Amino acid sequence: MRLFVALDLPEEVRHEFRELIARLKKECPAARWVRPEGIHVTLKFIGEREDIDMGSIREALAPVRSEQAVEMEFRGLGFFPDARRPRVVWCGVEASANLAALAGEVAGALEALGIERETREYTPHLTLARLEPGKISAGEMRKLVLAAESLEGESFGTARAGGFYLFESILKPAGAEYRKLQAFPFVRGIA
């Protein structure tokens, strides 16, 4: 199973991204655009794990808590690694300070099961598209970069999360599909 832990988005935010992706797709149809229903804020990518007991993952994640819900605003677009050599189109996530702490708690809980922590700092973002070198013309890429720059300060909505999910990622030719395996409320006092 290919697994990850993430915050889900409300439908009104998904609607904003549906419209945004449709707009950007006109500039760069050769990109591999994500399905809006699958957009999420990853807390920890676990990866392909056939060797791990699902009950152990559930037990490890169940005690993860925060004093408050995570507040997020989805703002601006960018590229990994950068606009000169773009491989991924992303939307930024401006969040309350407890989002990074929550990601750290999740990583720590899973580290006890032999799932390694990331070596780089946690940077929340929403992946919108993947760009494969050689499959996208220079003209399309330039149009996409200009479109992203024009939306640099634009907000695509807000969300408040009091729970996270363990997801399974099912890879298919048309793109990954995500299935929620379990919900984990993390705000104290929420059952």
CATH homologous superfamily classification = Cyclic phosphodiesterase
CATH topology, which one?
A: Cyclic Phosphodiesterase, Chain: A
Measured by DSSP, the beta-strand proportion falls in 25-35%
Binned, the helix content reads: 25-40%
User: Architecture, according to CATH?
Assistant: Alpha-Beta Complex
* Spatial separation of the terminal alpha carbons: 28 Å
Q: What's the CATH C level?
A: Alpha Beta
Mind summarizing the main beta sheet?
5 strands, antiparallel
In round numbers, the mean pLDDT is 93
Helical element count? Answer: 4
Q: What is the succession of H and E elements?
A: EHEEHEEHEHEEE
Describe it for me?
With 191 residues, the protein is of the alpha+beta class. It has four helices and nine strands, in the order βαββαββαβαβββ. The protein has one domain: Cyclic phosphodiesterase (Cyclic Phosphodiesterase, Chain: A). It is globular and about 50 Å long. The model has no long low-confidence stretch (mean pLDDT 93).
Outline the fold blueprint.
Blueprint: E1 2-7, H1 11-27, E2 32-33, E3 41-48, H2 54-61, E4 70-80, E5 88-95, H3 98-111, E6 125-130, H4 138-150, E7 155-161, E8 163-170, E9 177-185
Antiparallel strand pairs: 1-3, 1-8, 2-6, 4-5, 4-7, 5-6, 8-9
